[in-house]
Write a sequence for this structure.
């Protein structure tokens, strides 16, 4: 690992314009981007945003990016949060592909398909994401560049091996990649394996269902003669028994294969790039194998299948970027009881979710006032096949819900738009002003439309509430502004941003009061107050700051400050699962082959919680982590680190609430983070 600094840096465009290239060929300079490059041997900058090979979940890298955070439903099940929005509100482009989760509770959220050895960089668009960054970017956009073959490099063979071990929960990672190229052809391959047992909190209490086991492999084969490029890639991911204690079930397995063909044609006048992708994912989850469930008739096993096609064509023509892209996914999920062969719920049957889209973006970026203007139109359509339940025979309320769903028209079609303007004004050598405004729309997800029996299959909300959907949901419309300033002098840099957005028709659960069948069935499932996905209005605003400052040749400091507040406009309540106010400060040290990083993360208590979602308040806390490494030579580096150095017992607000029986934690208790843990790591590059 590069325990450390190896970790990385990278800052805004302003600090390091050349990193743009790594972000996206098409990212204009007026878009503010924070990029984490994959950890590597030699780090040339002070850590700003960091990625570490030791973290099993790449989503955790987000916690060092201003405005970003992670909703954790399990050790390797992280859902990206940005400025108070999360889940399907945030676009994730992974190697140019949109990954669609097979699990209706996002156990395989898009970032879970990553591992550090396959990632070149992870970037978050700061402020209002440009229209080019994805189809549904209402809450922001994350762009992950994957490592791929480099035919032009003409190198014999290069690669890396990474291994780490954590004594706390017997966690291990073994991964590596290989790269070779010759005569305009290149090949890149990688493999990765991560495993761990259940972890303990600072008071030695075991968190049941916190183990994980994931294996991945992939390859990229590419031809590039400098003008024409074409590549094919394959990514395989297999997750075996892995806990998700904040959800009602654990992962039995997730098996996914992703195929991709892409190409690029470059002339002096334009660049034309294209991509076609296919993904096939099968997923089994249950509530009895990894957690205690004494009631045999309440054992449930869900099998979920998703297949996704996606495509993209982009033309860069002088200052224009024109694009056509889309994704078409199908979802099925059946719930069974292994102890009762008659039991079957068709939870989602033949659900189709299609989003096709066109965009145009214009950038002016060669003067002291630069701007980017973009517009996107999206054609969203969806449909669902007939559902059924073996319970309908005996239960008239289940029958009533089944009949109502099958009789209604489940096909939908919405045309939605995004309009975005971003600008940067360079005032002088020290100051740059950043301002953006946008109108963004998002059509409802399939869970929000097609949950027909009250269930917790909500894309990973993990609030313990049962929900039903509404096929007639309107698209969300957000009116957003972002204003920031960047200051730099003598190596010191600081960039505060304030943001505000008003979201009309924000999709959120509201109480079901007028549907006795829903209330009766929910009651049967143990939830007396079920929720229905509904259009409400909401407001989200806040402030985030990042900064860094050198102390001397060896020491430097960097830090973050994040504040976000989300409220409902219809009633006096707060939005659900919003990150509490937090600060981070890291002290970096580097001398010859030695590197070290000491960091403090402080989170305030969160009192602003959603009553309707039964959200619990959480206490504030501070955590200290340390890591160090020694570069033995140009190839080999060894590292060691301690997380939660002071063995503080704390419960991250975004970590959710325990739903797994048989733990040292009661069901309904906030899940504690890991107690003090020590790890060692080893990196070899050649
Ligand atoms: Cu699942």
């Amino acid at each position: 690992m590069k325990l450390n600094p190896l970790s990385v840096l990278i800052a805004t465009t302003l600090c390091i314009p050349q990193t743009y290239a790594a972000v996206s060929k098409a990212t204009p300079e007026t878009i503010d981007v924070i990029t984490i490059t994959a950890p590597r041997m030699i780090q040339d900058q002070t850590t700003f945003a960091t990625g570490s090979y030791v973290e099993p979940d790449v989503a955790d890298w987000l916690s060092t990016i201003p405005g970003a955070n992670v909703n954790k439903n399990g050790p390797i099940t992280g859902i990206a949060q940005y400025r108070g929005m999360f889940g399907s509100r945030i676009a994730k482009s992974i190697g140019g592909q949109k990954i669609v989760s097979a699990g209706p509770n996002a156990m395989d959220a898009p970032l879970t398909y990553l591992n550090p050895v396959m990632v070149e960089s992870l970037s978050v668009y700061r402020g209002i994401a440009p229209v080019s960054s994805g189809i549904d970017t209402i809450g922001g956009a994350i762009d992950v560049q994957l490592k791929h073959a480099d035919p032009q490099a003409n190198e014999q063979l290069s690669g890396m091996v990474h291994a780490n071990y954590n004594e706390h929960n017997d966690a291990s990672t073994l991964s590596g990649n290989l790269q070779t190229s010759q005569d305009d052809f290149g090949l890149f391959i990688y493999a990765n394996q991560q495993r761990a047992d259940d972890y303990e909190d600072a008071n030695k209490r075991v968190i049941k269902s916190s183990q994980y086991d994931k294996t991945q492999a992939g390859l990229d084969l590419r031809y590039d003669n400098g003008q024409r490029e074409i590549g094919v890639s394959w990514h395989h991911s297999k997750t075996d028994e892995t806990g998700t204690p904040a959800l009602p079930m654990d992962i039995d397995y997730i098996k996914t294969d992703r195929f991709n063909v892409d190409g690029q044609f470059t002339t002096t006048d334009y660049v034309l790039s294209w991509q076609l992708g296919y993904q096939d994912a099968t997923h089994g989850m249950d509530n009895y194998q990894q957690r205690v469930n004494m009631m045999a008739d309440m054992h449930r096993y869900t099998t979920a299948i998703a297949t996704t096609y996606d495509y993209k064509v982009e033309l860069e023509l002088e200052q224009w970027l024109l694009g056509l892209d889309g994704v078409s996914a199908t979802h099925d999920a059946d719930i069974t009881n292994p102890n009762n062969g008659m039991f079957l719920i068709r939870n989602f049957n033949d659900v189709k979710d299609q989003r096709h889209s066109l965009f145009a973006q214009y950038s002016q970026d060669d003067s002291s006032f630069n701007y980017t203007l973009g517009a996107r139109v999206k054609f969203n359509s969806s449909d669902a096949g007939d559902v059924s339940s073996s319970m309908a025979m005996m239960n008239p309320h289940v029958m009533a819900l089944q009949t109502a769903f099958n009789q209604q028209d489940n096909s939908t079609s919405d045309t939605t738009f995004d309009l975005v303007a971003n600008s940067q004004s360079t005032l002088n050598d020290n100051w740059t002003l950043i301002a953006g405004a946008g109108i963004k729309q998002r059509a409802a997800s399939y869970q929000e439309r097609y949950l027909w029996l009250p269930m917790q299959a909500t894309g990973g909300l993990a609030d313990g509430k049962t929900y039903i959907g509404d096929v007639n949901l309107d698209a969300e419309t957000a009116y957003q502004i972002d204003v920031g300033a960047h200051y730099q002098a003598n190596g010191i840099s600081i960039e505060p941003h304030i943001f505000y957005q008003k979201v009309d028709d924000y999709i959120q659960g509201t109480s079901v009061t007028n549907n006795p069948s829903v209330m009766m069935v929910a009651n049967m499932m143990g939830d007396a107050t079920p929720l229905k996905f509904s259009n409400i209005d909401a407001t989200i605003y806040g402030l985030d700051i990042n900064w860094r400052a050198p102390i001397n040749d060896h020491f430097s400091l960097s830090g973050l400050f994040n504040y976000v507040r989300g409220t409902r406009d219809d009633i006096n309540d707060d939005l659900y699962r919003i990150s509490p106010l937090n600060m981070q400060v890291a002290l970096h040290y580097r001398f010859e082959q030695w590197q070290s990083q000491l960091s403090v993360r402080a989170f305030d208590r969160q009192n602003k919680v959603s009553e309707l979602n039964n959200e619990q308040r959480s206490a504030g806390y501070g955590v200290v982590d340390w890591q160090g490494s020694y570069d033995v030579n140009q190839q080999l580096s060894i590292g060691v680190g301690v997380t939660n150095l002071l063995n503080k017992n704390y419960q991250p607000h975004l970590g959710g609430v325990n739903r797994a029986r048989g733990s040292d934690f009661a069901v309904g208790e906030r899940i504690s983070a890991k107690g003090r843990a020590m790890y060692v790591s080893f990196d070899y590059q050649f």
Summary: Residues 1-26, 40-47 have pLDDT under 50 and may be disordered. Residues 5-685 form a domain with the Maltoporin; Chain A fold (CATH 2.40.170.20). The chain has one domain: 5-685.
